[in-house]
C-alpha cells in the first residue's frame, strides 16, 4: 500500500496538558476503538515532518481517547504545542494488543519510563487478576495514582533513588512469583525481563517499542527477529510472546 493513500481521520483536540516533566496527555473526544497494547498513528502538523508518530492508547471510554506521550523529538514537540480545538489526524487502532480475556491469576505488570502509558489501560481492563505493578523511571514518577486502586502492590525504581529502589526495576522483580508477566519499556529492560522469565519458565507477553514509520506494515522499518521469522512490529505486534522474541 502506498503511504500516500493512507486515509487519516481528522478530529479536534479536546485537551493537551502537561502530565509530568516532559510528559503530556492528549485527549480527543469521539467514538474510538482499541484494546490495550494497540496504537494510533498521529500527526498534528502539515507536510513536515513527513512521518506521523505512533503512540499507544493510554485509555478509552465511551466518548474519548487519551494518549500519554513523552516529548523526545520534532514530532512530539509539535504535538505538545497543540491546543484545544486544534485539528489532529489519527489512523487506528493499529497492531495487535494484549489478549486481555485470557490473562488470569497472579500477574506482574512491568514497565519502564513512558512504557507505563499502555499498561495503565491494560491494568484497568484486566479482570480476575491479582496485579503487582513494577515501574521504573529516571526520576519523576507518573501515572501510578490512576491505577493504584486496580493493583495489589506497587514497586517503584528510579535512577536517582528519589522514589523507591535506586537502580533498575529488574533489580527488584521476581518473575517466579507469577502466573504471567506483562511488559512494556525500553529495549534494555525488555531483554532483561525476557531472559528472567525464560530462566524461570514464566509466560510473558511483551510490547516492543521499536521505531515505526508507516504503522501498517508497508515500509519494513520496524522489523524484529522472532523464532517464527522476521515480523513487523507494527502489524504483527507490537505485543509478542516473550518466548518468540530472539534476543542477543
From TrEMBL:
Binding site residues for [2Fe-2S] cluster: 214, 219, 222, 234
PROSITE patterns (alphabetical): FAD_FR (PS51384)
Classification via Pfam families: DHODB_Fe-S_bind (PF10418)
Reported cofactor(s): FAD; [2Fe-2S] cluster
Pathway(s) annotated for this protein in UniProt: Pyrimidine metabolism; UMP biosynthesis via de novo pathway; orotate from (S)-dihydroorotate (NAD(+) route): step 1/1
Stretches assigned to the FAD-binding FR-type domain: 6-100
Magnesium found in the keyword field: no
Binding site for FAD: 53-56, 68-70, 75-76
Molecular function GO labels: 2 iron, 2 sulfur cluster binding; electron transfer activity; flavin adenine dinucleotide binding; metal ion binding; oxidoreductase activity
Domain of life from the UniProt record: Bacteria
Gene Ontology biological process terms from the UniProt entry: 'de novo' UMP biosynthetic process
Keywords noted in UniProt: 2Fe-2S, Electron transport, FAD, Flavoprotein, Iron, Iron-sulfur, Metal-binding, Pyrimidine biosynthesis, Transport
Membrane-spanning residues: none
Family annotation (Gene3D superfamilies): Dihydroorotate dehydrogenase, electron transfer subunit, Nucleotide-binding domain of ferredoxin-NADP reductase (FNR) module, Translation factors
Record's cofactor remark: Binds 1 FAD per subunit. Binds 1 [2Fe-2S] cluster per subunit.
InterPro entries, A to Z: Cyt_c3_hydrogenase_gsu, Dihydroorotate_DH_ele_sf, Dihydroorotate_DH_Fe-S-bd, Dihydroorotate_DHASE_ETsu, FAD-bd_FR_type, FNR_nucleotide-bd, PyrK_electron_transfer, Riboflavin_synthase-like_b-brl
Role of this protein: Responsible for channeling the electrons from the oxidation of dihydroorotate from the FMN redox center in the PyrD type B subunit to the ultimate electron acceptor NAD(+).
Family statement: Belongs to the PyrK family.
Subunit and interaction comment: Heterotetramer of 2 PyrK and 2 PyrD type B subunits.
Name of the molecule in the record: Dihydroorotate dehydrogenase B (NAD(+)), electron transfer subunit
